[in-house]
Design a protein that fits this description.
about 350 residues, alpha/beta, 7-stranded mixed beta sheet, globular
């Protein structure tokens, strides 16, 4: 697999000719299974074939049960300079419900160790978990704040088809997530983190100044990105592509020097819809002038027309030619955005 990943990095280098690489992100499955030497091997290949910024953000996703003291110290000595830790909750009952491999004690211990070795850490929490009231949710957030980490991501629990949680909900063993409760907990989260100096810069993301995720911000601002490995997606501004999901098929193709990839050319409507979706989720909003310049005057007029009812009910605001979701509209962002889509 490592040889195949290196092969793809080398094969696709021309695609990023003239581009400055600002971030490297090890995510997707469980990249923390890679040893420090294997991570450095892949990072060295990026440096060999691409033009990198002076101090690129290099993030590794990891689960608490993977982050032993030895592992954290190895990573701190490597080029990795940012950790993304999937905490989800500090309560064992929540973790069991979500079928997580770690427990609450491991979550606390890994954050204690990681915060001593890394300045740049982000952690994930999940809200809207059945049986978790607002007080317990507040306790979750406050426990995370004790570690003084500069970035927090929080997501509403969703029940994916075919998962253990899906079976529990369908059998009646577990209550379905309550959207009203999730909205309340979203408001609690925003209030707590804003009071602690976090900027709510994207719907699910809160960061201290200077610690916004450069990787994720690139997606939201429509920058090019290249995904390496099975199932990885890429985007060049006009076209989206994705690699075959099968590990054996991916490796077999790459060892032959072939890229097992499918592509989709995005229409103007596709690109407009993506800009609306990503823009409304962020503090940068959707600029009418950008819509006019990139997609045409027709799309600008359509955007303003579709936004009228949301401006009227206070879910959107229009300031200096930019549409933003208001605090009242934030939890409803995705639904609002879909109503502004060009169909």
């Amino acid at each position: 697999m490592l040889t195949a990943l290196e092969g793809e990095l080398e094969l696709r280098a021309e695609e990023f000719s003239g581009e400055l690489v600002e971030t490297i992100y090890f995510g997707g499955g469980t990249p923390s299974l890679l040893t420090a030497a294997e991570l450095e091997r892949l990072i060295a290949k990026v440096y060999q074939h691409y033009n990198l910024a002076t101090a690129p953000e290099i993030t590794l996703e990891a689960n608490p049960d993977d982050l032993t003291e030895t592992r954290i110290r190895e990573l701190a000595a490597s080029p990795v300079n940012r950790l993304s830790i999937g905490i989800q909750s500090f309560f064992d009952s929540d973790l069991r419900l979500m079928n997580r491999a770690h427990n609450a004690e491991e979550a606390l211990k890994c954050l204690e160790l990681a915060s001593k070795c890394f300045d740049n850490i982000t952690a994930d929490l999940i809200y809207g978990i059945p049986g978790m009231d607002n007080n317990r949710w507040k306790e979750n957030v406050q426990k995370l704040l004790q570690f003084d980490i500069p970035h927090i991501s929080a997501y509403a629990l969703t029940v994916e088809t075919g998962t253990a949680l899906d079976r529990f909900v369908n059998s009646g063993k577990v209550a379905a997530p309550d959207e009203g409760q999730a909205e309340e907990q979203f408001a609690v989260l925003a209030a707590l983190l804003t009071a602690e100096g976090f900027v709510h810069y994207e719907l699910s993301n809160f960061g201290k100044e200077g610690y916004f995720s450069k990787n994720n911000t690139s997606y939201w601002l429509g920058k090019k990105y290249m995904g390496i490995g099975p199932s990885a997606h890429s985007y060049n501004g006009r076209e989206r592509s994705w690699n075959v999901a099968s590990n054996p098929k991916y490796i077999k193709a790459m060892l032959k020097g072939e890229l097992p990839q499918e592509k989709e050319l995005l229409s103007i409507a596709d690109r407009y819809n993506e800009y609306v979706m990503t823009g409304l989720r962020t503090i940068w909003g959707v600029a009418a002038v950008k819509v006019r310049e990139e997609f045409g005057e027709h799309y600008e007029k359509y955007l303003i027309k579709q936004a009228e009812k949301y401006l009227g009910n206070g879910l959107l605001s229009f300031e200096k030619g930019v549409l933003y979701t208001t605090s009242k509209g934030k939890f409803l962002t995705d639904g609002i955005a879909s109503d502004l889509f060009y169909v």
